[in-house]
Amino acid sequence: MKRRSLLKNSFLLLGLPSKIHRSNFLNIDNSKINWDKVRESFPVISWEKLHLNSGSAGVMPNPVLDYTIEAIRYMNFKAPYEVWGEWQAIKKSNINRIQRMIGAPEQSVEIVRNTTEALNMIISGLQMKENGEVIISNNAYPFAVNAWENKATKEGIQIKKISYQLPDTDDAILNQYKKVISPDTQVIHITHMTHREGHIQPIDRIIEMAHKQNIQVVVDGAHCIGQIPLNLKDSDVDFYASSLHKWLNAPHGTGLLYVKPELVSSLHNHPSSYPGANDKIAKFEHIGTRAFHQEIGIHAALDFHDQIGLIPKMNRLQALKEYWVEQLKEEPKVNVHTNIDPNYSGAVSTLSVEGFSGGQLVKILDRDYDMHIKSVGGLWGSGVRMSVNIFHNYSDLDKFVYAIKEIAA
Ligand SMILES: Cc1ncc(COP(=O)(O)O)c(C=O)c1O
């Protein structure tokens, strides 16, 4: 490509609106959104397999992909750090928009690469007393559990593991934590929307209960941003970690770290950050050279998201989920392990088929039905996690329902 056209394309990135403003498929009223057009914004047609695993990672819609590709070109066209300097205004505006979107105060959010990284920053940064205790449940994400176990080995903290089956009521979940709190408890680690059953846990009530006893709460919100409304300030959240590449349809390798502003200095400084930056959320920015273009692509993902709006998106995901669950929940040998009430789950839900492990179902769905899905195992046994997304239509779900019925028959 000639230098001039490269530059021309790349002007898009200098703070000008992304191409998404030109799309016309959306409206603020859910009923007026043309979901077929939304679907067309994704590269669905070229997929060989039906993608039922957005819980692991979402996909970028074409406008976000185009914008991000343009950003890659631009970053490679000049000295990358010159470009990163030019992009600071976009980065700042992304953070401000995200802060507004999740009800977070200023200076509380930093963009990182994923939930895992944000959790590592929080868990390794927490200054706990020797023998100080963290409570964590069987519903926590395994790599988050690893982070706590490694901290225990290094720093001599205690891990109290509890176990409870989901779905369950808010009262019952709250009680699981309440009854095991001890004078040594310093931290509760909880997953907001769980990775197996997609259960939305009552973080507000857990935080309120914990704070009364001077206990801090680390929330793994990997699945929540872009999927359910959040107000981290009202919920009095201490620490929150999320991925933007799951439900915000942002470029892969983008995530978010939230620290309540008054707690920033209580976390150990990030190893590569300036000692004098310890009280600033920006201390977590010093992670070296990275795929800056991915981070800048968040701008386009936010535009795309805003064009739909969170509530219409949530309603659509709910309708898609209900559609397949309603058809399978009475099916002999099929068990749904998710409470599909929108107060208790979003797009992620789980089922098992008697006589088949989750791994077997994954293989059969892949081999015989061209579907990509993830296996999960809970206290209830082994099954598959089904993620609906805004690029699905009802005919996709008919195929899924048909496949499960055939397997179960
Ligand atoms: C609850 C939960 N936490 C954390 C993660 C890790 O997310 P990432 O790979 O984006 O760091 C996942 C991934 O599926 C998850 O389900």
Please name the defining characteristics of this protein.
409 residues; alpha/beta; Aspartate Aminotransferase, domain 2; Aspartate Aminotransferase, domain 1; 7-stranded mixed sheet; 4-stranded antiparallel sheet; 14 helices; 39% helix; globular; binds pyridoxal-5'-phosphate
Write the layout of secondary structure elements.
Blueprint: H1 3-10, H2 35-40, E1 50-51, H3 62-77, H4 80-86, H5 88-101, E2 109-112, H6 115-125, E3 133-137, H7 142-155, E4 158-162, H8 170-178, E5 185-191, H9 203-211, E6 216-220, E7 239-243, H10 244-247, E8 255-259, H11 292-308, H12 310-328, E9 334-336, E10 348-353, H13 358-369, E11 371-372, E12 374-378, E13 381-387, H14 394-408
Parallel strand pairs: 1-11, 3-4, 3-5, 5-6, 6-7
Antiparallel strand pairs: 2-8, 7-8, 9-10, 10-13, 12-13
Helix pairs in contact: 1-3, 3-4, 3-11, 5-11, 6-7, 8-9, 12-14, 13-14
Bound molecules: pyridoxal-5'-phosphate.
Residues 55-56, 114-116, 141, 191, 195, 220, 222, 243, 255 line the site of pyridoxal-5'-phosphate.
